[in-house]
Predict the 3D structure of the following.
Amino acid sequence: MSVFLSETDIARFLGQSLPDTRKAIKNSKLKSLTRQGLKVYTRDDVLNWLAENFTSLTSERLMKADHSSADGGGLDPFSCGITNLLSESEICFPEKASTRSSILRYISSKAVEIGSVYDDSELREQLEQREMVVSTALKCGAALIHPLDIRQLYVEKELLLLIIPPHPLPFGESRGRLTSLFFLLLFPDPHRHVHILARLNRFLRSNEFIEELLCAKTHEEALNIVYHRELKVISLHGKS
């Protein structure tokens, strides 16, 4: 797993030209380094920047990022990848969760229970550090949670978790909005991480999808909602 990413790597994530990518980087707060005469950026700085940047992309550009990063990660951009990742025991309904700390504890313990990681305290620390940089909570009421530096964790298998707590809770959204849906992303491969991140952002542009998911009471019901949303997204060609 590379620690550094080039401008070309970032362009592939976004599915856009190198000049356009350089312009986007110039307008960002990303700090470059020089390695072997090449301008590079740290992997986690790039992934954190993309997580913040995706919410402001047009539907067409977000679709390009979805497809391009899927290709880079060896995935089929027209398959129901999110549905497949959530098809086993990865949709959870905790009985209690009222604070950011309590939901992160629950998520970390669930990741250990499933067998994705072995140390819930290490995962929780990485999640907390990520939230301290900039909250992963979006204004739509969902949070796309991921570690600050996944290289600090031993990930046995990649994991996508969907957590639907009984009540919305404060999680750090910039305007104080409460958060109702929590997705955990544990993907060591940056292409796969960006693909999942982009596709979830496409899902969350539908208020109807969010409302239906919040009303779900069982794993099967929630998975069916995700499945139908994903079918719509992969057939819309950028109009999600």
Remarks:
- The two ends are 32 Å apart (CA to CA).
- DSSP finds ten helices and nine strands in the chain.
